[in-house]
Amino acid sequence: MALPQYFKFYHSVLSVIQDGRVYTNKEIREAVKMQSNFSEDDLKQLLGSGRKTVFEDRIGWAITYLKKAGLIEAQSRGHLNITKKGSDILSSGVEITNSLLADISEDFRQFVKVSPDKDEASAVESKDGQDGQVDLEETPEATLEQAYKLINAKLADELLETILAQSPSFFEQLVVDLMKAMGYGEGLKTQDSRDGGIDGIINEDRLGFNLIYIQAKRWAPDRTIGRKEITSFVGSMAEPPRVEKGLFITTAKFTDDAIKYAKAQHIILVDGKLMFSISIYLG
Questions:
Q1: Is the residue at 68 inside a domain?
Q2: How many Å apart are CA 148 and CA 156, to the nearest integer?
Q3: pLDDT tens for residues 57-69?
Q4: Residues 106, 171: one domain?
Q5: pTM of the prediction?
Q6: Alpha carbon distance 194, 216 (integer Å)
Q7: CATH code (residue 169)
Q8: Helix (H, G, I), strand (E, B), or coil: what is residue 91?
Q9: What is the pLDDT of residues 129-168, one digit of tens each?
Q10: Does residue 46 lie within any of the structural domains?
């Protein structure tokens, strides 16, 4: 079964600590895990950062929000117990939602910036971020990751738009510069229209014993590069001085047949999605 959202763990967390004892965060997580039927794959699923599991993140934020609402309290750092308010809410049998927490706690409302007259559905931030509301469907860490991905996607779109507005020669030089920034050595763009299918050359060593040939295609992102183009590139590499390392990079994408053939020929393929990710990472 898939892991529920963090607010679905409110009841489980309170149930674990309802005996009034003091628990650590880890003890609460382990107890909730024991009461559930999550698969090992579910429990091992990581956040995009790779530093924490989704399960740990969601239990952690469930605890944080319950503390802000006054349903649990910290005796010391990382040591928690249920409050009278928490016991009363749990014994009432009412569904514990973010709306309920907002209704009973000013501290919770301030923490998540939800006004007391907003219901749970409207407490979710609109896409344009108006009204100062926050997305209560995801934990803050997950929301930050989503925002990071959206920002990167926006940057990739802007980068693509800029590249497509330039000449093919501009893109070829950009690829050579990108390889240099990645630490592959000095490089040069071949002379326009006289490259024999080779758009750039990277010298992996100062004497030029190890060369990487580059083919760069500034194509629209909805176009595909097939085996024909890869075969032509391989043919150019076979000509003197016969270079064994090749990089085919494009703003478009590759067909499955092209990918399979390139792998057999030891040609590295970089499509638009990967290229923009690398460019954004390098700044």
A1: yes
A2: 12
A3: 899 889 989 998 9
A4: no
A5: 0.49
A6: 14
A7: 3.40.1350.10
A8: helix
A9: 333 344 466 777 777 776 666 566 656 666 776 788 888 8
A10: yes
